[in-house]
Amino acid sequence: MTEPILEVEGLRKVFGDAVAVEGASFSLAPAGALAIVGESGSGKTTIARMIVGLERPTSGRVTACGADRSAPARSARERRRRGREVQIVFQDPYLSLDPRQTPAAAIDEVLRLHSTLDAPARRRRVAELAELAGLDDRQLAALPARLSGGQRQRVAIARALAAEPRVLILDEAVAALDVSIQAQVLNVLADVRERTGVAYLFISHDLAVVRQVTDDVVVMRRGAIVERGPTGQVLDDPRHEYTRLLRESVPRPGWRPTRRLTPSTEETP
After folding, report:
1. Which residue of 19, 42, 99, 226 has the lowest C-beta tally within 10 Å?
2. What is the pLDDT of residues 94-149, one digit of tens each?
3. Residue ranges per domain, the chain?
4. Total-model pTM
């Protein structure tokens, strides 16, 4: 049996008196695609931040590529190693891109940090990553303010891939895009996964997107996982009342929201 590329065990995160994540456990297979879904405040982004080291778990364990990363990295060398294992793409790429730096320079900066390539080899690699993410020469030379939201998200994806991570976390990475651009970015992600073998951890509230790009899904509510399984099975035949409510809340022709989850209708995970 193949060992998971990413494993989360009993993860818990407390902020003051508030429990953001309670006992979350799941694993991601090499080259797999796992979604964490739930409404805003369910704890899914907090899990992503703990995996990449932006938050420290109150308790529990995070293992990536066979190494424990539950505690903060103790050295620059350790941070670089972790960066080569796991990268993250956020919902708003404009906030994570330097407005004074072109996409080509942003990608090259990651290559200088995480590879031993010389300048000509880095230029060739920038071109390869741009082609993989669907960026042309004009877009590579433009400042972020001159790019569309979809183009900036492609830059963020290419920059993350420059570190050659084994796991790419996509935190609502297409939520801010219109439908046509969203479809283009999702096609890019599918192509990247097929060509590189990178594993995806997809943080989302959009069930249609989750169905399109993931193999498995875990459903979170109030910091806890309430359901898990193959994506099609969970979305087509949900067992938990909360998952059914999420599915019924997707807008559609003639849709009228008439239900809400109350303590009396909740089920045991």
Report:
1. 99
2. 788 999 999 999 999 999 999 999 999 999 999 999 998 889 999 999 999 999 88
3. 6-229
4. 0.88
CA distance 140 to 142: 6
For the stretch 226-263, pLDDT in tens is: 999 999 999 999 999 999 988 887 766 655 655 555 54
Q: Are strands 199-204 and 167-171 parallel, antiparallel or unpaired?
A: parallel
Q: Using 50, 70 and 90 to split pLDDT, how confident is the model at 269?
A: very low
Name the fold adopted by 6-229. Rossmann fold (3.40.50)
Cα gap 203→170, rounded to integer Å: 6
Would you call 187 helix, strand, or coil by DSSP?
helix
> Using an 8 Å Cβ cutoff, are 80 and 113 in contact?
yes
Q: Which residues lie closer than 8 Å to 45 by C-beta, 6 or more apart?
A: 171, 172, 203
Amino acid of residue 197: G
Close Cβ partners of 204 (under 8 Å, ≥ 6 residues apart): 35, 36, 37, 170, 172, 175, 210
Coil, helix or strand at residue 204:
strand
Q: What is the dihedral of CA 129, 135, 138, 139, to 10 degrees?
A: -100
